Amino acid sequence: MELVKLGKKGQLTIPRSILKAIGIAGESPMIVETTADGAIVLRQAAVYPIEIYSDARAEEFENSNSVPPALEARVDAFIRKKRKK
């Protein structure tokens, strides 16, 4: 356990040895929470990039996921054949 001091601006410096022990690199985003008993809990935040698609890009995805007519016809024929049996 290490002793730390709260600064005048409410900032706290976590000793490098503690950060290293739990695998947190410098300038990592953190989540701060409090508990009912007054504890302060810090957790490393997971940050994921977000891409917002234009209508044109979304249409590209839809087109690439569509079933070609020839394949659709083969599947329909297969299903009809299985139903006859």
Q: What does this protein look like?
A:
- The protein is 38% helix and 12% strand.
- It is α+β, with helices and mostly antiparallel strands and 85 residues long.
- The chain has a domain of 30 residues.
- A two-stranded antiparallel sheet has the order 1-2.
- Strand 1 and strand 2 form a beta hairpin.
- The N and C termini lie far apart (74 Å).
- The mean pLDDT is 91.
Give the topology.
Elements: H1 16-21, E1 30-34, E2 40-44, H2 55-64, H3 69-84
Antiparallel strand pairs: 1-2
Considering DSSP H and I runs of 4 or more, what fraction of the residues is helical?
A: 25-40%
Broad structural category: alpha+beta
The end-to-end distance, rounded to whole angstroms, is 74 Å
Low-confidence sequence ranges: none
**Total number of helical segments?**
3
Instruction: Let me know the number of strands.
Output: 2
Largest sheet: 2 strands, antiparallel
Strand order of the largest sheet: 1-2
Shape: elongated
Features:
85 residues; alpha+beta; two-stranded antiparallel sheet; 3 helices; 2 strands
